[in-house]
Amino acid sequence: MGNGNLLYVLRLGGVKILLLLLVSITGFTLLHLAPGDPLSQFTLAPGMTAERLAQIAHGMGLDQPLWRQYLHWLHGIMTGDWGRSFRDQSPVLGIIVSHLTATIELGLAALGISFSLGLGMGLMGALRAGRTVDDVTSVISIILFSLPTFWLGLVFIYIFSVRLQWFPTGNFSSPGDRSIVGYLRHLALPALTLGLVSVPVWSRYMRTFAGEILKQDQIRTARALGLSSGRIIVHRLLRGALLPMIPVAGIYLPTLLSGALVTETVFSWPGIGRLFLDSLQYRDYPVVMGVLMFSAILVLVSSTLAELLHHVADPRLRA
Amino acid sequence: MTDRNAAPLLSVRNLTVNFGGPDIVDDLSFDIGQGEIVALVGESGSGKSVGSLAIMGLLENATIQGSASLSGGASSGGQEAPTELVGLPARRLRALRGRRISMIFQDPLSSLDPLQTIGGQIREVLKAHTRLTGAALHSRAIALLEQVGIVDPEGCLALLPQRLSGGMRQRVMIALAIAAEPDLLFADEPTTALDVTVQAQVLRLLKGLRDQTGMAMVFITHNLAVASAIADRVIVLYAGQVVEDAPADVFFRRPAMPYSRALLSAAPRLEAVLAGYGHLEAPRGQVPSPGQRGTACRFAARCDDVRETPCLASMPSLVSIAANGEAHHTVRCARWEELAP
Ligand SMILES: Nc1ncnc2c1ncn2[C@@H]1O[C@H](COP(=O)(O)OP(=O)(O)OP(=O)(O)O)[C@@H](O)[C@H]1O
Ligand code: SF4
Ligand SMILES: [Mg+2]
């Protein structure tokens, strides 16, 4: 890596850290301005007095001015102490990590589904431009794009769980069932829901990128030189179309998180999406802020990685 | 170079192409001799590209009728039985492309793979057609680049197309096209996108390659001056038909078809072309579009010599006007004899 590249990475990093700060300030402020109070869960406890409540508030740091609370929180974040949950006093980072596996598993399964379907559909549409296959894949994309995630989830539950009883309605596993098959049956519907709703992103971009390459003279020339269609599809078409997909993936991968929020709620999937909504309901600020920051970092890391990867993968940028 | 007694390398008969609508190329017939450079000229839309692509088997969604028969090339000493290209299964056509017939196009930048080094692209073609590997593959790649006049072939192998100048790119493109030593090269306006000095260099290169290897060439151009610089024979296409087919020296001295004459009188001389002017100046009026070609002479509306009869009575056919012992010369004009100087 040359000096220019190092500078590029540093500048990229600087901008992203500023963005993180902005997200955290906005999140912190909005959260504390929103109606509701984390203390409300204690007020109804038997034998609760105003004094005792004030004590609790002090213990949670809620009696401090907002900016002080923020700085305290920020200091903690930077030193690796993400605070403790208001609900059960366990460390926020630990809670997030323990919910992460479920989300990652759901995310990967959904990604596998949406990537293979989306890229496949886009490629087929481009190769059969203007024919029936192209129209059908376009219409499927548009339909999937306009379906709300929760609605699709509920429809799946109704059809496959309630009517056909093929799959459980939700949760990570059934009590007492630790088998892989049991787990996969639980994973199937949420993964399919989350996967299908993100198909259109990949299929539309793939259709566009692959279509552009097919229009280029290089494809006709490759054929004129006697290269096989397999070689041309893999080495010219796929390679050329996947390259611009890298930054697109960097931008759209994190949107899986917002999809996961809904999917996990509909299917009671114990990931960080559901953790976020639960914590929001309990006004568990440290956990909410923790998940928020975690997601923001994920978004930035993902887009940064994609940019770097694109830089490495495109020989024109290396030259 | 041209040996008219030998069987032609490529023999095209009644080739007709449409895309579901009217015929774009209509009853095209001509021969290309071994090692012969034939200029295919005609105004835009006359079907030069479509006809060539049809022979190469590179058209999609096209209906192709007629025949294009490729005889055994220089490599086989003409011993192989001719291969009919029209209707040949896609796999067999692919195996012939690059190895027996090859093609280069106008814009070398968009013709090359932008993501692969020159070396990678040459190896890709060589691997598709030869069994070369390792050092042999490498030295063949170097030899090809030297053959097309690239000064630092070793360095060039590592470069991406974007790093080369237009002329270098077209040289690389030519190297790719001749990598498997084809017998026939279609060159579709290969110099049009280049600036004039480079244009002359590439023309010299192509002619030199023919002299070296005996590869025949169909050189498609708008530009009669370019045609005169390179061609052994000239075929004029008008509205999808051959209207004149003559040896270059005969064609430029005594063109028989009024359309050819109009083109020649409007065309600038070679010096002017190389100085930067030179596109084929069309005679007045317009080429009838594929749907409106009618049953009369297609040039009638623009022809100064048109007569009710015979010009409008029926479509003139392509007739041989070569006197005994003269080289092949055909023309599509009902009045060629009266008009002969
Ligand atoms: N894929 C296609 N589908 C339908 N029509 C086509 C197609 N390709 C070419 N044509 C039509 O065929 C006609 C002849 O085109 P062609 O490209 O062969 O002309 P040309 O002689 O090569 O002209 P130019 O000098 O402009 O390259 C044109 O009218 C063109 O619109
Ligand atoms: S047939 Fe008649 S109209 Fe056609 S080119 Fe000859 S003279 Fe002109
Ligand atoms: Mg053309």
TrEMBL record, chain A:
It comes from the Bacteria. It is found in: Cell membrane. The chain crosses the membrane at residues 12-34, 106-127, 139-160, 180-202, 241-267, 287-309. Residues 100-310 form the ABC transmembrane type-1 domain. Belongs to the binding-protein-dependent transport system permease family. The keyword Membrane applies. Pfam families: BPD_transp_1 (PF00528), BPD_transp_1_N (PF19300). Gene3D superfamilies: MetI-like. One of its GO terms (cellular component) is plasma membrane. Its main location: membrane. It is a multi-pass membrane protein. One of its GO terms (biological process) is transmembrane transport. This is Peptide ABC transporter permease. Keywords: Cell membrane, Membrane, Transmembrane, Transmembrane helix, Transport.
Automatic annotation (TrEMBL), chain B:
It is found in: Cell inner membrane. It comes from the Bacteria. GO terms for cellular component: plasma membrane. It is a peripheral membrane protein. One of its GO terms (biological process) is transmembrane transport. The keyword S-adenosyl-L-methionine does not apply. InterPro entries: AAA+_ATPase, ABC_Ni/Peptide_Import, ABC_transporter-like_ATP-bd, ABC_transporter-like_CS, Oligopep_ABC_C, P-loop_NTPase. Residues 10-264 form the ABC transporter domain. GO terms for molecular function: ATP binding; ATP hydrolysis activity. Its main location: membrane. Keywords: ATP-binding, Cell membrane, Membrane, Nucleotide-binding, Transport. The keyword Nucleotide-binding applies. Belongs to the ABC transporter superfamily. This is ABC transporter ATP-binding protein.
